[in-house]
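Bug #77: duplicate submission created two jobs. Keeping one. Sequence:
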Amino acid sequence: MRYDLVIFDNDGVLVDSEPISNRLLAEYLTELGHPTSYEDSIRDYMGSAMHRVHDLVLERTGKRLPDDFDDVFHARVFAAFERELKPVPGIVAVLEKLAADGTPYCVASSGSHERIRVGHRATGLDRWFDDARIFSSQDVGRGKPAPDLFLHAARRMGVEPARCVVVEDSPLGVQAAVAAGMDVLGFTAMTPAGRLTGAAHLFATMEELPDLLI
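Kept job's structure:
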């Protein structure tokens, strides 16, 4: 294989959580007096850490979100995950192949450690990701599009950035991986290909991914 480490984004790449979380985020922001459509949420927040939501709302309206915003939002999301969340179609076969081939892999997500683990337990993906393979924006000072998270994951996994490939579905994630000096494979299941500028290759289904790693 051409890479020594495969780094997966989580939301939208491992677990099919983006429709759920962006629907709930749009609803909650609208409740609070910041009218937001599902499409707005996808465009502005997909792939980002929670601080981006706070920053953009403050920048646009001059108003701060409530202190308990993150807690309330995550409670809603986690409850929905238990009811609705599924693995991204085809990802289990990809993980089985990486494990069988002995290829190192991990996840580096803008989501919190709790969010990652709740999603993995709900979908059964926790069998593929022990604590040593899970990295969150909570681990670093700046989330995507800064390269810090991906560089942190590579360092902890003992692999040079140039030998890593990132599997991403958000523009912010692609920017972060490129800034980290890593190749990026852009997953276009939910994101128009034109928004993933900088990705070395684009693919629409997980069945295509193994051939891109060789």
